[in-house]
């Protein structure tokens, strides 16, 4: 990511899927809510986490309000939505509590469920999750950007091959964006 020379000097808002290496760059971050919606659906359907469905509905309602208001919310509307968001996170914390820490501490972090990891990410990165409400140029999702650069064969999940190393390197350079 450094070698391509874009992210090290990028000063805008980087919308991404919470891949930790992106956070090494000093730009503003926005987390892709389409990824969150998929994970929330999974938490609701597979782990029976009721909070996850409520959060999914809330994020979609916020996005609808943002679109209805021309791409950005007023400070008072933003505060209203953040209050609902935080309230739902508190409710989620009761339904999906953190794991009990063992008496004899092992090395590393105590294992958490996927739903708990998602909950902690939504809580710890609230500003990045909700940045689309307050900054007009920040999208709700980065899916369009991903679709724009995805090759048709990759999109269809058909393996291709490269005829030369130069072709492979060019493909990787383009895909790295």
Summarize the structure.
The chain is built from 8 helices and 2 strands. The protein is mainly alpha-helical. The protein starts with 12 loop residues before the first strand and ends with a helix.
Write the layout of secondary structure elements.
Elements lengths: L12 E4 L11 E4 L1 H15 L2 H19 L6 H21 L18 H11 L1 H9 L8 H7 L2 H4 L9 H11 L2
Parallel strand pairs: 1-2
Helix pairs in contact: 1-2, 2-3, 3-4
Notes on the protein architecture:
The protein is mostly helical. It has 2 domains: 32-99 and 112-141, no CATH class; 143-177, no CATH class. Helices cover 55% and strands 5% of the residues. The chain has 8 helices and 2 strands, in the order ββαααααααα. The termini are close together. The model is unreliable at 155-159 (pLDDT under 50).
